């Protein structure tokens, strides 16, 4: 899809902090970093949401989630838990209409309800790159 930001990331038209990539799936840090290590896992095939996703694409996408989650946990040993979120359609707060799974590490000191606020001004690009590097080294 030509106007999809995630398709542009897949095609390297827009930079991202990739933590995992294979022929079917891409994982990269969410720009908002709801918590440190907040990662998006997306199918490389453009599919809007779970309602139109075929079983093969779903299997490819969701089969990678545990592997990436474990890498995030190894990268940030202070993690106490993780939210795994998949929003579908605008009414359910989907804001990018290319299906994606949020892996949101939870830390003892965090105090957020899942609100997906943009926290880009809370960290430097160096911190962002370091987070991606820590995760990708643990996959």
UniProtKB/TrEMBL annotation:
Gene3D superfamilies cross-referenced by the UniProt entry: HIT-like
Entries under InterPro entries matching the protein: HINT, Histidine_triad_CS, Histidine_triad_HIT, HIT-like, HIT-like_sf
Domain called HIT: residue spans: 5-113
Motif (Histidine triad motif): 98-102
SUPFAM superfamilies: HIT-like (SSF54197)
A Gene Ontology BP annotation from the UniProt entry: nucleotide metabolic process
Pfam families: HIT
Protein name in the entry: HIT domain-containing protein
Organism: Fundicoccus ignavus
